[in-house]
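BUG-139 | component: ligand-complex export | severity: low

The export step for adenosine monophosphate jobs runs without errors, but we want the raw record kept on the ticket for reference. Input record follows.
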Amino acid sequence: MHPPYDPQNIFAKILRGEMPCMKVYEDDAALAFMDIMPRSEGHTLVIPKTPARGLLDMPAAALGPYMQSVQKVAAAVGKAMRAEGLTIQQFNETAGGQVVFHLHFHIQPRWEGVALKPPGIMGDKAALEDRAALIRSAF
Ligand code: AMP
């Protein structure tokens, strides 16, 4: 069992507009924005509007629409970044590598021979804004 959903988590604050984000896409099911510590150029997060801590407590009825949004964002990110591939990651609970406890999928553009950067390194704001603009125009 995992703890209950905490509405004070940072992604909940972003959803409520209490914290800023570099938004690239929004629909009824999901919000997508740049990861501020990108592990590859164009690293984007897609979060559901439905409150869920991880994949397992996401209501089944909301999961389908959310995953359609994840797929749509992944396609736009890949196109915008001219990616050769995409790594899509989703972590559950601390032991599973989760740090922010609102469900999210990582969309990481990949190129042959280019390794993911280590986690926890803050991205350059201007570069992130540049990538965000590219991605917004790819929908
Ligand atoms: P994880 O829960 O392990 O999937 O990691 C959370 C991810 O959210 C990390 O990749 C962080 O860089 C990213 N992150 C944390 N805070 C923010 C924020 N305010 N805006 C955008 N990305 C964030």
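Assignee comment: Attached the raw record above. The pocket of adenosine monophosphate is lined by residues 10, 21, 33, 35-37, 45, 91, 97-100, 104 (CB under 6 Å).
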